[in-house]
Write a structure and sequence with these properties.
alpha/beta; globular; single chain; binds nicotinamide-adenine-dinucleotide; Dihydrodipicolinate Reductase, domain 2; Rossmann fold; six-stranded parallel β-sheet; nine-stranded mixed β-sheet; 15 strands; 339 residues; 11 helices
Amino acid sequence: MTTLDTIRMGIIGCGGNGRGHLHCYVNDYPGVVEIVGLADPSKAAREQAWEMTGKRPGVKVFASHETLLKRTRPDAVLISTPHVFHTQQILDSLAAGCHVLAEKPMVCSAQDAKAVIAATKKADKILAVGYSRRTMGPYLYTKRVIESGEIGDVVFVSCWQSQNWWASQKGTWRQKLALSCGGQLNDSGSHLVDIILWMTGLEPETAFAFQDNCGTEVDILTAASVRAKSVGAQGGALMNFSVVAKSVNFVEDITIWGSKGTIAIRQDGEVWRWESDQKQWKVPKRQLPKSRRPDDNFLAVLQGKEREIAAPVECGLAVMRLSEAVWKSAKSGKPEKVR
Ligand SMILES: NC(=O)c1ccc[n+]([C@@H]2O[C@H](COP(=O)([O-])OP(=O)(O)OC[C@H]3O[C@@H](n4cnc5c(N)ncnc54)[C@H](O)[C@@H]3O)[C@@H](O)[C@H]2O)c1
């Protein structure tokens, strides 16, 4: 891959999250990122984004991503749109010769993930997914501890996440199945699924789940139990995922039990460790790696300053494979294979 000193960038989807990324490029990467185009069918959203660029005449504004790609020929694009559009927008951007930072979930099915993996290889471009936990200190630390063997073989994972999503997202595209392709499991839950699989390295084999849509088109509550394949000498691991979108508060909590120790990430990124009932400690913040954003990693790789993409294209497939098994099991009432 040819490295780039400056990056001509297009933004596809100028909503709340797209503008968050834009804020990062405009404020933290002047002289490195040049915003060349903004695409959004909503005039209000694209104008708001254009204002953030200082209304520069060089920034072209479009209603569709196809026109943005054709008219501005960017080096890279950020895709931050309702989930159903991701696959086509990624494929079109790769075909137009762009590197891509795609928001989560990368795509809406395992089949689409395979198509995107093949297209990324064919185009010989970088594709990064916006799984922001992968560049954050508590998760990087936990992955390193697990990989070092300090807690032994992972035998059990319990994680939960709660938000007021059922009430706060009423009437938006997020609760319309045709646009979101799934509920909270596919939204913030997608982060939880990805980070557990990434930190533990476990390969899910079977899922058994209950879900409740709470009167909406999409999953609001998910209780999923998962059996993972043996990845080491021992006999595999069990995992519980709780995704709660009908909550008055935001809480996220992960506990990972190993044969030699336990590690937990509590609310606000506190990391706790146990070696026995007598030996437990909170990991001092200074021992955690520095947190960054997916954008920092993506831009550093394009500039040749880093080699590894934190959340590469393959993670989009791993997340969809497990999510599909969970949705299927909730419908069938039976355990379902992760395919
Ligand atoms: N990584 C994170 O922590 C994080 C946080 C928030 C959102 N997200 C993700 O970002 C994406 C967008 O979420 P959001 O919160 O910005 O939603 P949003 O509703 O605020 O914005 C979505 C924008 O996409 C636009 N849009 C709709 N169809 C489009 C199309 N065909 N082409 C271009 N733009 C189109 C809408 O007009 C809107 O402006 C989703 O994938 C979401 O899951 C990720």
